[in-house]
Amino acid sequence: MSTTTHPQDLGLFQTIQERHTVRKYEQGVEIPEQELNEIIEAATQAPSSWNLQHWKFLVIDDQQKKEQLLPIAYNQQQIVDSSAVIAILGDLEANKNADEVYQGAVEQGFMTEDIKNTLVGQINGAYAGDTPFPRDEAVLNASLASMQLMLAAKAKGYDTCPMGGFQRDRFVKEFNVPERYVPVMLITVGKAAKPAHQSSRFPLEEVVVKNTF
């Protein structure tokens, strides 16, 4: 039995250690579009159920739009001071992506058309009916992309803050979010105006349970 070994990625662990929530940003800092695209591209590499990629990223970097968002986010100053606010939206109809996702696998010879049709049928069945499953999957998978986005931003030298405190219904209405998507969180991105407040974490013995409670 062969195994593949990789050197320890100390850079990744350093990025994880250095990422902290930042609420005070330098005003007027613009993130080059290429860098912002690279950050979002990294977020899209996150895993997702059935590879349906249950996410959409609404980038709000226009200052007037950020001013419009400010009261929706309970007037949290970071909204207007950050370089950009990225609204992470979860896809309630991600099953509609299935045919396109798996057709590529068929064309590359990774699966047969019959297997693809079976998988697509199973996915559509899981999304059928009035159940919490589509919403649960939308939030779960979009959250995976969110964490990856924040780590990618930190690796590029930018700071972030995930925000759950905003009026979702109002956001949907004022930013014309289609019914297909549910707002999961807002993430502010920019350059910290001062070092982030250090927060403690519970020791492993308080958060890890092995095998069973």
What does this structure look like?
By secondary structure, the protein is an alpha+beta fold. The protein has one domain (19-191): NADH Oxidase. The chain is 44% helix and 14% strand. The chain is built from 9 helices and 4 strands. Helix 2 (33-43) packs across helix 7 and helix 5 (98-107) runs antiparallel to helix 6 (113-127). The two termini are 34 Å apart. The relative contact order is 0.22. The mean pLDDT is 95.
Short description, anyone?
By secondary structure, this protein is an alpha+beta fold. About 45% of the residues lie in helices and about 15% in strands. The mean pLDDT is about 95.
Rg over C-alpha atoms, rounded to the nearest angstrom: 20 Å
Helix content: 40-55%
What characterizes the major β-sheet?
4 strands, antiparallel
Proportion of strand residues: 5-15%
Total number of strands: 4
* Poorly predicted spans: none
Category from helices, strands and their pairing = alpha+beta
Under the CATH scheme, which architecture would be assigned? 3-Layer(aba) Sandwich
CATH topology: NADH Oxidase
Task: Please give the CATH class.
Answer: Alpha Beta
Number of helical segments? 9
Instruction: Give the spatial strand order of the biggest sheet.
Output: 1-2-4-3
**Count of discrete structural domains:** 1
* Overall 3D form: globular
Order of helices and strands: HHEHHEHHHEHEH
Please name the fourth-level CATH homologous superfamily. Answer: NADH Oxidase
Nearest-integer average pLDDT:
95
Head-to-tail CA distance between termini: 34 Å
Please outline the helices and strands.
Elements: H1 10-18, H2 33-43, E1 55-60, H3 63-72, H4 78-81, E2 84-91, H5 98-107, H6 113-127, H7 133-155, E3 159-163, H8 168-174, E4 181-190, H9 204-207
Antiparallel strand pairs: 1-2, 2-4, 3-4
Helix pairs in contact: 2-7, 5-6
